[in-house]
Amino acid sequence: MKKNKFLIALLFTISQASFAMMQMDEKGMVMNANPHNLPKDCPQISETVDLTIHAGHKYATKFNGKMFAFDQQQWDVKPCAKINITFINDDQIRHQFMIHGLPGYLYPDGMLHLELYGEGELHASLIMPNQKKTYLVHCELAQHAEKGMKSQLKVGGGDGDLPSISAISMPIKADPYSLDLSVLKLGGIIVLLAFTTVIVVGRWLLSLYFNSST
Ligand SMILES: [Cu+2]
Q1: Where are the domains positioned within the chain?
Q2: Which fold does the domain 28-155 belong to in CATH?
Q3: Ligand 1 centroid to 47 CA: how many Å?
Q4: 56 Cα–ligand 1 center, Å
Q5: CA triplet 41, 131, 84: central angle to 5 degrees?
Q6: Neighbours of ion ligand 1 (CB under 5 A)
Q7: In the predicted model, is pLDDT for residue 34 greater than 70?
Q8: What pLDDT does residue 15 have?
Q9: DSSP string covering 42-73, please?
Q10: Average pLDDT of the residues in 101-126
């Protein structure tokens, strides 16, 4: 009996702990916000940065072929900075703000995740580790990152640019929109050969016909 009570108490504590990492209502969700716990390598918070980040279709119109974007493609903060994020979705559809690559002992799956199911606003804080690194920020809904909703958060200047950040870096593999002229050349040669064959065979058949009739 005592064992059962202990198990129930343990499960209750675990569920409360996981619930504390996630806030959810009818408008959106915040998962793994961390306003208080310092990363192991940070003696203290170096600076507090208030970032307002917009997501929406209108921020992508300046990029050819893109459909969605954040209003900025890059942010830069100091190592051990505390970032207070205000995430605003200007569209009527779902968008996410996800940061990957954070230390797993503070952020389960190394991730901070904000999501709005439509137009609205969310708030969350996090504290960055004490190392120069470039973090991927994107919306993970199907095709949203590919269509432009992908940015980078640099800590201490970062450790390089990530690929396919609009107006910052080239994709690893570009979309194959270019015309393959080699196909056209091969096609042209085939058409020319066929045309020549028809003329030569036609003339031969005509000469046979006229020779036989005289
Ligand atoms: Cu999105």
Answers
A1: 28-155
A2: Immunoglobulin-like (2.60.40)
A3: 29
A4: 8
A5: 85
A6: 95, 139, 141, 144, 149
A7: yes
A8: 47
A9: -SS---EEEEEEEEEGGGGTTSTT---EES-S
A10: 96
Strand 28-31: give its sheet, edge to edge.
22-24, 28-31, 112-116, 95-99, 133-138, 150-155, 74-77
CA of 198 to the centre of ligand 1 (A): 57
Distance 100 CA to ligand 1 centre (A): 16
Q: How many angstroms separate the Cα of 44 from the Cα of each of 36, 40, 103?
A: 11, 10, 16
Averaged pLDDT score across all residues of the chain: 88
Q: What is the 3-state secondary structure (H, E, C) of 115-153?
A: EECCCEEEEEEEECCCCCEEEEEECCCCCCCCCCCEEEE
Q: How far is the CA of 109 from the centre of ligand 1 (A)?
A: 20
Q: Ligand 1 centre and the CA of 10: distance in Å?
A: 37
